[in-house]
């Protein structure tokens, strides 16, 4: 057999081929790594929203202050460092990127400084709105950084860099003064409806701007690793805004049979009492508006005669006592197990809440209660019910002052007093 002859490659040519092979391998690996960075946080958010029981609750004001403040401060320092690098390099696009992150990090720091019961005695509007406002402001810088920066536009941005940086610092300084000194309009907590509308408006616009910026960067700079990191960062900032949406429970009751159909969009679980037993009514679903075309799991159960339902918001579950412990779902379930009518149960829950929180408590969130009781017999006060209708039903919604803090709390009471099912 003829021996094969192998031509020895020159060293430089061999090294060049090795570099090209390594570069191709790195390029193939880059896409799945980037997609994993992008998808994993979104998957975690979906899991928590689809199954709220996985979302462990821990709230400690001093802990919140230090964790958020240190995280935000480190992010601010990094943002300033990137901004200085952009100034030295004369890079207008990088300057706008740094301002986007400085806006989000700076207002996150302001949110930490206004933590209730740390530097301030209670919460105010500055604490509630700081984070979404910073993300909203950063979204505009992110969008601007993704536009077509011609040499003339880039030069204009660089000429105004001190105005942009100084203006952002001034806005944050004014915000800090109003929030920490409790000056109008930050001298009191914002009304719940107004707060939700403002936060949701900021979130919708901010998410759209971050999404546009991310798409533009992905199209322009797919092969540049650093810029792919910016795309990921913008998507994660938009994801942060998606946590600011509405939760609810939707239920339909047939009073003739006691059949209840319900769906849950991220709200605390309703409770069904049957005799002395209390069960949580579970149905998975994400908060309203979080994702388009979302489908919600529908569940069906039977409310027995003499049984009752309790719907409540997390303002009751997460109310804090003097030691910062929460009122808790277990305490609510234990109180709901007592065989009381709807109005008596609501009064009991409010009385227990007052005793738990103490005289100096400032209400942190809305406390909404809806109690529904099915009568033990098909008649009420000797009067038969009309077929297919309740013999007598009362539904009352009124505002009841709870304690200092928000001026009033919505308490809804619905008590079924009869039925033919």
Give a description of the structure.
With 421 residues, the protein is of the alpha+beta class. The protein folds into 2 domains: 28-47 and 59-241, no CATH class; 248-416, Phosphatase 2c, domain 1 (4-Layer Sandwich), CATH 3.60.40. The protein is 51% helix and 13% strand. The chain has 11 helices and 11 strands. The protein has helices at 11-50, 61-89, 92-113, 125-145, 151-159, 161-180, 192-220, 225-241, 314-317, 329-336, 342-357, and strands at 248-254, 259-265, 271-274, 277-280, 299-302, 308-312, 369-373, 379-380, 383-384, 393-400, 409-416. The strands form 4 sheets. Strands 4-3-6-7 form a 4-stranded antiparallel β-sheet. Strands 1-2-5 form a 3-stranded antiparallel β-sheet, with no helix packed on it. Strands 8-9 form a two-stranded antiparallel ribbon. Helix 4 packs antiparallel against helix 8. The longest helix has 40 residues, at 11-50. The radius of gyration is 28 Å and the shape is elongated. Residues 1-6 and 379-421 have low confidence and may be disordered.
Observed structural traits:
Phosphatase 2c, domain 1, three-stranded antiparallel β-sheet, 11 helices, disordered N terminus
Q: N-to-C terminal Cα separation, in Å?
A: 97 Å
Count every helix, treating DSSP H or I runs of 4 or more residues as helices. Answer: 11
Total domain modules: 2
Structural class by secondary-structure content: alpha+beta
Largest sheet: 4 strands, antiparallel
Instruction: Tell me the overall shape.
Output: elongated
The share of residues in helices is 40-55%
């Amino acid at each position: 057999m003829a021996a094969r002859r192998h031509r020895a490659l020159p060293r430089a040519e061999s090294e060049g081929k090795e570099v090209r092979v390594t570069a191709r391998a790195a390029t193939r690996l880059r896409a799945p790594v980037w997609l994993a960075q992008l998808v994993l946080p979104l998957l975690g958010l979906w899991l928590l929203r689809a199954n709220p029981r996985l979302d462990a609750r821990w709230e400690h004001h001093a802990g919140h202050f230090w964790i958020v403040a240190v995280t935000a401060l480190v992010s601010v320092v990094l943002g300033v460092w990137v901004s200085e690098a952009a100034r030295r390099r004369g890079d207008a696009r990088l300057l706008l990127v740094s301002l986007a992150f400085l806006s989000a990090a700076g207002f996150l720091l302001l949110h930490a400084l206004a933590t209730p019961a740390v530097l301030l005695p209670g919460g105010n509007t500055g604490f509630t709105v700081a984070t979404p406002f910073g993300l909203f402001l950063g979204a505009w810088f992110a969008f601007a950084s993704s536009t077509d920066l011609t040499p003339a536009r880039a030069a204009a941005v660089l000429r105004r860099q001190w105005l942009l940086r100084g203006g952002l610092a001034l806005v944050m300084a004014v915000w800090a003064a109003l929030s920490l000194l409790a000056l109008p309009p930050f001298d009191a907590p914002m009304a719940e409806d107004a707060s939700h509308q403002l936060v949701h408006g900021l979130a919708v616009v901010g998410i759209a701007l971050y999404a546009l910026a991310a798409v533009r960067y992905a199209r322009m700079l797919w092969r540049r690793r650093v810029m792919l990191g910016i795309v990921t960062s913008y998507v994660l900032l938009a994801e942060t805004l998606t946590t600011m949406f509405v939760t609810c429970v939707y239920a339909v009751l047939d009073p003739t049979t006691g059949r209840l159909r319900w769906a849950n969009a991220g709200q605390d679980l309703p409770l069904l009492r049957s005799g002395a037993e209390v069960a949580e009514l579970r149905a998975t679903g994400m908060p309203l508006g979080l994702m388009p075309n979302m489908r919600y799991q529908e569940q069906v159960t039977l409310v027995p005669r003499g049984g009752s339902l309790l719907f409540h918001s997390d303002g009751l579950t997460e109310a804090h006592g003097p030691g910062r412990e929460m009122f808790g779902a277990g305490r609510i379930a234990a109180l709901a197990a007592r065989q009381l009518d709807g109005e008596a149960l609501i009064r009991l829950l409010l009385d227990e809440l007052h005793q738990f929180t103490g005289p100096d408590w400032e209400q942190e969130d809305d406390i909404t209660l809806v109690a529904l009781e099915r009568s033990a017999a098909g008649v009420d006060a000797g009067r038969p019910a009309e077929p297919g209708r309740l013999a007598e039903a009362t539904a009352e919604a009124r505002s009841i002052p709870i304690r200092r803090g928000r001026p009033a709390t919505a308490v809804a009471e619905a008590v079924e007093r009869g039925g033919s099912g």
